[in-house]
Task: inverse folding
């Protein structure tokens, strides 16, 4: 029996933001009038495509329940995990009794509040008929060097190098299987790498370079600037 394919979002938001070096996890820092996490979730909800958005939140998190968006009817709270892939897997488990194997899941970092509705739809339109799925990515602007200590061993062919962003869009079952079979593997830094290890070939879809991940203190002002430009 066929069914209509649904779209789900999973947002890992259980990190501590060590590199940000702030007094709270970076997803709760203020950007304009809202926290980073609220911007991110409101933009996903505005895309008006997701059946639900599962958000992985640390069990010790005192900030989440203070947010208005926490009680939104399309938001499902999941348990945060030890590492990012564990949090994503927990988000997948939280929708397991509603999601079908071939439904699409878009995983998006809480720390990327500048995601646009247009880029979400661009990714979906590009991949909706694909077998495997893929990710938003941007071409590298700088010349890239292969380095050992401070010695340059060579120059990489830039045409083959892309920076992986989120959302990353895969089928529910294949994403869950890929993440479950790579639990604890430190090489898995995004969803695509888990699927690549299964021998699958995710696609890249060119995204906007302003979809930055807030990582270090200077990124907050940059995100604010991008938001005013959008
Ligand atoms: N994340 C998560 N669970 C973890 C670790 C990270 O849900 N155990 C989330 C973060 O909240 C963030 C996203 O994964 O939205 C990307 O991770 P990263 O930028 O590395 O965030 P942090 O791990 O919080 O930052 P840092 O590595 O500097 O500590
Ligand atoms: Mg991290």
Result:
């Amino acid at each position: 029996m066929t069914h209509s394919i649904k779209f789900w979002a999973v947002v890992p938001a259980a990190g501590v933001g060590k590199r940000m070096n702030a007094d709270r996890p970076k997803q709760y820092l203020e950007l304009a009038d809202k926290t980073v996490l609220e911007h991110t979730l409101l933009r996903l909800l505005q895309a008006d495509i997701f059946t639900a958005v599962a958000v992985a939140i640390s069990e010790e998190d005192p900030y989440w329940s203070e947010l208005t968006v926490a009680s939104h009817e399309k938001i499902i709270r999941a348990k945060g995990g030890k590492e990012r892939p564990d949090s994503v897997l927990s988000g997948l488990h939280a929708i397991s009794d509603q999601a079908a194997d071939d439904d699409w899941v878009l995983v998006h970092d809480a720390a990327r509040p500048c995601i646009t509705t247009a880029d979400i739809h661009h990714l979906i339109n590009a991949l909706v008929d694909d077998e495997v799925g893929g990710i938003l990515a941007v071409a590298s602007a700088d010349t890239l060097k292969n380095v050992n200590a401070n010695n340059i061993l060579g120059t990489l062919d830039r045409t083959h190098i892309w920076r992986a962003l989120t959302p990353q869009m895969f089928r529910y079952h294949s994403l869950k299987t890929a993440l479950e079979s790579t639990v604890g593997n430190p090489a898995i830094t995004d969803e695509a790498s888990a699927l690549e290890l299964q021998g699958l070939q995710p696609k890249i879809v060119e995204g906007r370079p302003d979809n930055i991940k807030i990582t270090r203190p200077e990124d907050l002002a940059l995100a604010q600037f991008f938001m005013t430009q959008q």
Remarks:
- The chain has one domain: 7-229.
- The chain has six helices and eleven strands.
- The chain has a mean pLDDT of 96.
